[in-house]
Design a protein that fits this description.
mainly alpha; two-stranded antiparallel ribbon; about 45% helix; about 10% strand
Length: about 200
């Protein structure tokens, strides 16, 4: 067996597999995605009045007290950085984690001093990805009184808005997309002193 007879089929196989897996397969999958799931294939972008406000798959930081706040993010150099997805990797007894949780609890208490309810865990701990766009229904309900008061809206109306946007996970836990919730909040109950468009202000 000479080198030529060995090398030729190897090169043919290499070229064929390169074309199949590096060109044909990606094109087919991309094409099917654009036809069958165009929104998801293009990043599940959320738009309003021709402006892209974010993605339904990536969280955003909301700090104004008249908005619902997202779950904390441990990505760097800024929160919800999709290019640096990851968690803090700190154990439950790590002093840095305990300090961070205490500071987040204090910030929530300071924003709503009259709220003596127990703070839901997802409002003070980060996820493994650091990109969660959702909070639990319990986390949203914890903030409901603060947002209702600052928006001048009865809590019952906000509770109805919240219920209409809540979805169930495969494990049965209710959750809500924070960007979608705050956009609906601006549309239905805008803060009069702020711009009247539907772009969430952080």
């Amino acid at each position: 067996m000479n080198l030529k007879s060995t090398l030729r089929p190897a090169l043919v196989l290499f070229t064929g597999l390169t074309l199949l897996t590096g060109l044909v397969y990606p094109l087919v999958v991309t094409g099917l995605g654009q036809v069958m799931f165009p929104a998801a294939a293009n990043g599940s972008l959320v738009q309003s009045d021709g402006k892209t406000l974010g993605s339904g798959l990536i969280g955003q930081s909301f700090t104004r007290p008249d908005y619902f706040w997202s779950r904390p993010s441990a990505t760097g150099p800024e929160p919800y950085n999709a290019a640096a997805s990851g968690g803090s990797n700190l154990g439950p007894n790590h002093p840095d984690l305990r300090k961070a949780v205490a500071e987040r609890v204090a910030a929530l208490r300071a924003a709503d001093p009259g709220n003596l309810r127990r703070v839901p865990v997802d409002l003070v701990t980060t996820s493994a990805s650091g990109l969660d766009p959702h909070i639990s229904l319990a986390a949203a309900e914890y903030q409901l009184g603060r947002v209702a008061r600052l928006r001048g809206v009865p809590e019952l109306q906000l509770r109805h808005l919240l219920g209409g946007l809540a979805t169930q996970t495969v494990w049965g836990e209710a959750r809500v997309n924070v960007l979608a919730l705050n956009m609906a909040l601006d549309r239905q109950y805008p803060v009069r002193s702020q711009p009247s468009d539907a772009t969430p202000r952080t």
